[in-house]
Amino acid sequence: MKALRNWRWTTLAELVVPDAAPARDPSVIVARSILIHGPISRTEVADQLGLSQPTLTRIVKSLMDSGLVVETGDRIDGVGRPSRPLLVRANGRTFMGVKLTGTEAFATATDLTASEVAVASHPLDDHRPEAVVAVIAELEQRLRTATGRPFEAIGVSLGGSAEDGRRVDRAPFLEWRGVELAELVERATGVATIVENDVTALTAVEHWFGAGRGETDFAVVTIGAGIGLGLVTRDRVVRSRDAGLGLAGHIALDPLGPPCMLGHRGCATAMLTIPSMCAQATLGHGRPVTFEELLEHAASGEPLCSSIVSTAARALGRLIAFVANLSLVDVVVVSGEGIAILDVAEAELTDALLENRDADAHPLDVRYDRSDFGSWARGAAAVAIQAALPSVVAEGRATTP
User: Strands 154-158 and 116-123, how do they pair?
Assistant: First the structure.
């Protein structure tokens, strides 16, 4: 078992590795900067991290000697000798991310930049922890065969909370409480494992490798089966023991809107989730209406479906504005299967967004991540990558001649 097995969370929810490289190891910090921002020049890294050129040169040499960091072929001319931008060798290590829902386990194998290498999925017909772990182990074998490489670490994300990164405190879709998931997966696969809330994991991949790459402060809003909210502040993903409760789902958006299952009229869950939108269309048509049908009917101008989608888009515009107004960020990443409504009603969202922002506020940069469902599994892999980076750097240092 790799060193990841002994990782823990501090009270500040910052992952540390007591048995490997310290979390504030300068080599880890430099590797992180190159991983996120590469290709990047040595001067940019030094300026970004406040390091002297001699210190940076020593650290970069060590990272290059270990094979973790490489130079690109492009030369940068400037003061002193020309240099080449730096990159982390992404294909040197493989990670696995698993997204668990109430009906399916979706897994992806990625490289060190969370870029997808292979995918696999399996239905979850049995929610008993041992049955779910057996599915994860089967997916691990399938992806290991597909990539021809063992995994450095596995990340598992789910709709729920795992405050210490190992024990699932609660997962409503699976009807779990107090499940030692990381330990069970490690026993079944022999691979170090970390567990995270799915929206937090998605925020992590947006932060390092996605639409929020290079930003130190931004929010993530997801719409789909539920409503999710993630936040990055001062270059760190905000983690909370209340992750997975769907608290953003009950933000009031329309006093005349439909009620949610808890009786909150016009809240984000009632206005924006796919089940709620489909239920409204089903009620109006007197037959089941899928999300795809809802969008098709709305695009063709069918009155009921057009109204449902337009109203949802306006509600999403309000939600984005509320999130930005309260968190004081000016970048919001919107993701999830539900953003397909914008193919029909993006103008309605824009209008609502402007109506709910102060005219003197900084312009809001709204970025849409239209990735498929695999982005959730990539988020789980990103959490594993972030957690494993200190160990990866330490191992490279140990094997450097």
Answer: unpaired
